[in-house]
Specification:
By secondary structure, the protein is α/β, with parallel strands linked by helices. 42% of the residues lie in helices and 14% in strands. The chain starts with 6 loop residues before the first helix and ends with a helix.
Length: 412
């Protein structure tokens, strides 16, 4: 019996999961596709689902959301969807039947021992499942065997430390950031108490809760690169956010500018740390093929029309541009500019769904910063403080996050 058969468990997990927050999803979309409104699956399908009448295998289907989305695409002819949790597969099958979807065939399959048909699939999609597999030698040999010669494996996976045994440096950053947040935003839905500190689970606790969780996660990339050619990879992050936002992500309301800005700042801090290689990247999205080859360019679905705030970065006079161009000074990095935009937007009464990042506005901001001769985060905090109110606990939290950003990313 596996906990993944328990519908109540999976429902609670979906609510407590760090990815359940709208702003976090936008951040992850941007990391995966370059656009906060384009989700990874649809965007990558337009690149890597080559041809028509495709046969697709979905690994770890759970209750079926992923393959039901794929079934809507006209270039997909048939989908085999599998999972080792029999009750979850039964629920997925029932939902597909209720919706009249006939493209999908479901089966209960354990990747540790299953035999897959040779050259059966044009695309195999694995989402948050292979890190539950212990017999990676067998599983990856079967996946390679099941792919057609020009087939693609698309993987969206946790590839971080085995059994969540992340380092003390990561744990310290998690708790430094948690300490910045007001108590009401640290209150859990499952635990129903305020989280004062995060703890690294012991291996024994991990095994007792779910023996399959992250059983050999730190070896996944090695196996993929050994069996196939990785043709694209995006470092999504999750190293900090997965543990920091567990059971509290629901507290950060998207339509409340200050709350949304706090979670956006957390995302920005993690991205800066990952991109600077200060911490490892625990989640990746990648495409791998038997044969090396470029992406297939199909038309993307129309981009949703959402409201967009103008770039909040400031203006500068022409004379100041000349003076700044002559000055010798370090400029604000892209993560710093993102942090400043988020901080400035946090103090507004209302926000649009997205915000613009205008290169000209960024250049003008750089000029003002250079002429100020201030340290980067001294400048950022002073710009934000003009409209902030430190009597507000969310503004105090934003100040602490900016100071922590300065400290952990090392922008001194």
């Amino acid at each position: 019996m596996t906990i993944w058969n328990d519908a109540t468990f999976t429902k609670n997990l979906a609510h407590a999961n760090w990815m359940s927050n709208v702003a976090v999803l936008g951040h992850l979309n941007e990391r995966a596709t370059g656009d906060p409104v384009r989700e990874w699956l649809g965007s990558w399908a337009r690149r890597w689902f080559a041809g028509d009448n495709l046969r697709v295998l979905v690994l770890g289907c759970g209750e079926g959301w992923l393959e039901r989305g794929i079934a809507a695409w006209p270039f997909v002819a048939h989908i085999d969807a599998v999972d080792f949790a029999a009750d979850a597969v039964a629920r997925a099958k029932e939902i597909a039947s209720e919706q009249g979807i006939t493209k999908i065939a479901y089966d209960v399959v354990d990747l540790n021992r299953a035999e897959l048909a040779k050259d059966a699939y044009d695309v195999i999609v694995a989402h948050a499942v292979i890190h539950h597999v212990e017999n990676l030698e067998h599983a990856f040999a079967q996946l390679r065997n099941a792919l057609r010669p020009n087939g693609t494996l698309i993987v969206n996976e946790y590839v971080g430390p085995k059994r969540f045994q992340f380092g003390d440096d990561v744990l310290r950053i998690i708790n430094d950031l948690l300490a910045c947040l007001p108590a009401r935003l640290r209150r859990g839905a499952i635990e129903t108490s305020v989280y004062e500190k995060r703890e690294r689970p012991t291996v024994e606790q991990m095994i007792a809760n779910d023996p399959t969780e992250a059983v050999r996660s730190d070896e996944l990339l090695t196996f993929i690169e050994r069996e196939l050619n990785v043709v694209d990879r995006k470092n999504i992050g999750g190293t900090i956010l997965q543990h920091l936002l567990y059971d509290i992500s629901h507290n950060f309301r998207f339509d409340v500018p200050r709350e949304r800005a706090l979670v956006e700042m957390l995302c920005t801090i993690e991205a800066a740390l990952v991109d600077a290689k200060r911490i490892p990247c625990d989640f990746v999205l990648l495409a791998a093929r038997k044969e090396r080859g470029g992406a297939v360019r199909k038309d993307l679905t129309p981009r949703p029309e959402l409201s967009i705030d103008a770039d909040p970065l400031g203006d500068v006079a022409r004379k100041q541009v000349v003076r700044a161009a002559r000055a010798k000074s370090r400029w604000l990095t892209r993560p710093m500019l993102r942090a400043l935009r988020i901080a400035l937007l946090a103090t507004r009464e209302q926000r649009a769904n997205l915000f613009e990042e205008n290169p000209r506005a960024a250049l003008r901001e750089q000029m003002r910063f250079v002429l100020s001769r201030e340290r980067p985060f001294t400048w950022i905090i002073s710009r934000w403080a003009k409209n902030a109110d430190l009597r507000n606990e969310d503004d105090r939290a934003m100040l602490m996050l900016l100071e922590t950003f300065d400290s952990v990313v090392g922008c001194r």
